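Pipeline run #58 for the internal structure catalog. This entry was flagged by the ingest filter as a single-chain record with no existing model, so it goes straight to prediction. Upstream metadata was stripped on purpose; only the residue string is passed forward. Reviewer on rotation: M.T. Logging verbosity set to normal.
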Amino acid sequence: MLVGKENVVNKKIVKEVSEVFTIAFKNYNEILDGSQTLYSPRILLVNLMDLGSYEEEVISALKEKFPKLKLIAIHCFQNPEMINSLIRKGYDSYVSVFDLSNEFSTMLHTQDVV
């Protein structure tokens, strides 16, 4: 499941990821207000460019609702220290939006998702 705002970037991410892995989109506001979903995700992708000050709330809500799932951050970071700070926040992995199509399949295998 990709979590973020409804926008062109997320539509493109869903389209690209769908070529490798079945994925659904969920607006982060639905996560925060506790909206139920019939969809049972195998992985959680979070578009950090959409969350701003809601990031910690969204992470907490996702970890509470789906405690056994991998939490993958998506952003445009290229600096290793910025990426490592995401891992320290509680994300299991990171994928750059610039390298999504190249790195996503590899990341799924290294995180034992597929």
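catalog note: The two ends are 14 Å apart (CA to CA).
catalog note: The helical segments are 8-18, 28-32, 48-51, 55-65, 80-89, 100-110.
status: ready for reviewer M.T.
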